[in-house]
Specification:
With 374 residues, the protein is α+β, with helices and mostly antiparallel strands. The protein is 34% helix and 24% strand. The chain is elongated. The protein binds zinc ion (ZN) (2 copies).
Length: 374
């Protein structure tokens, strides 16, 4: 990691500890691995952070103690006091919390299991445990310069893979085989791994939004959904393009044109101050206007970052997740329409919200990739 690409962890920790006082918490136990990584730079499988007004401490076991010390020395981890687990994480947590005299302690409700919470409650009955929601996730919602730089680089790399689809998709090739070639291309351009299981859904299978690749071989007249993403320095990007094998019928062609228009409509309303529901509405109205409302059976997009699906959700107002967009938010715009018997279409790009619009992080053409039929 170079000096310029290094995240400002100290600022992130400061922002997180600041929100402790808003909630009158003496401490917060951060156990979601992605939140731990975001605040400290720790990338191993298990470590907890204990945040207090005085700063953060990291609790990890013998496997990672040396990694933390070395990472701190070279600047890949934020310097913070290290507590090494001797018997169990729970017992060490008791020690740390009593040492910092914490009485009212927050925990991440979406990460701690019911069994885990019961253990803490039994071991530390004197503590007033407070469930918290999205305390660190809300900080992750706005990407800082270091994150935007990684996501931009990842977007370019994904564009490069997408620009090669014409040479990967071929009539007679099995979906599974195409997915494997896409995964190999993701690795070749420098992604550490695919961000999720690559989707290659052809012909009738394209009518299922989350189809898994099968042994079906592509045939003349097929629409093919190609949805893939990569992880770079922990950050995820995600893209969908469409291919056609030879000539497609007019129903499939108009389905493609409708989704393409819906994506443009949604992109046109992204700007700081608009809401996630406004963006969803733009795509949804476009498809409803073409009789495809019921065919659009998912949200318009999702946030991207350390997780491939994170806040903000770009979905209808009725979903209850309405976010006012702000500069620095990064999410996908991926309307789709799926008709059993005809097939399905989805187009997906990644954008960064700016004051007066958005910056596209993925920019390769969304045109139908037409390959010749056998
Ligand atoms: Zn996708
Ligand atoms: Zn997506």
């Amino acid at each position: 990691m170079t000096e310029s690409s290094r995240p400002n962890w100290a600022r992130r920790v400061q922002a997180a500890t600041h929100s402790l006082s808003d909630r009158q918490l003496d401490a917060l136990v951060v156990s979601n691995p992605l939140n731990v990584r975001y605040l400290s730079g720790f990338t191993g499988s298990t470590a907890w952070l204990i945040l207090t007004q005085a700063g953060a401490r990291i609790l990890t076991d013998g496997r990672y103690a040396a990694v933390v010390r070395r990472g701190t020395d070279v600047g890949d981890l934020v310097p913070m006091p290290l507590d090494v687990v001797e018997s169990t994480y729970d017992r060490s947590l008791v020690d740390v919390l009593s040492r910092v005299s914490a009485m009212r302690v927050g925990f991440e409700a979406s990460t701690v299991t019911v069994a885990g919470f019961r253990r803490w409650h039994d071991l530390m009955p004197g503590i007033d445990w407070q469930p918290t929601d999205d305390l660190v996730e809300n900080l992750r919602l706005i990407k800082d310069d270091a994150e935007v730089a990684v996501l931009r680089r990842a977007g370019h790399m994904l564009d490069y893979v997408a620009s090669g689809l014409g040479g990967i998709v071929a009539s007679g090739r099995a979906e599974r085989d195409i997915a494997r070639t896409i995964d190999a291309a993701l690795e070749r351009v420098g992604f550490e791994r695919p961000a999720f299981e690559t989707i290659v859904a052809s012909g009738p299978n394209s009518a299922y939004p989350h189809a898994r690749p099968t042994d079906r071989r592509l045939a003349a007249g097929d629409l093919v959904v190609l949805d893939f993403g990569g992880v770079l320095d922990g950050y995820c990007v995600d893209l969908t393009r469409m291919a056609a094998v030879g000539h497609i019928d007019s129903a499939a062609r108009s389905l493609f044109e409708a989704v393409s228009g819906a994506q443009r409509a949604a992109l046109g309303v992204v700007r700081a101050g608009a809401t996630s529901a406004d963006v969803d509405r733009a795509a949804r109205s476009w498809l409803e206007g073409r009789g495809l409302g019921p065919a659009f059976c998912h949200g318009t997009g999702h946030g991207l970052g350390l997780d491939v699906h994170e806040a903000p959700r770009i979905s209808r107002a009725e979903s209850g997740h309405v976010t006012t967009l702000a500069p620095g938010m990064v999410f996908t715009i991926e309307p789709g329409a799926y008709l059993e018997g005809t097939g399905g279409v989805r187009l997906e790009d990644d954008v960064l919200v700016t004051m007066d619009g958005c910056d596209a992080l993925t920019t390769c053409p969304t045109d139908l990739v037409v390959v010749s039929a056998l």
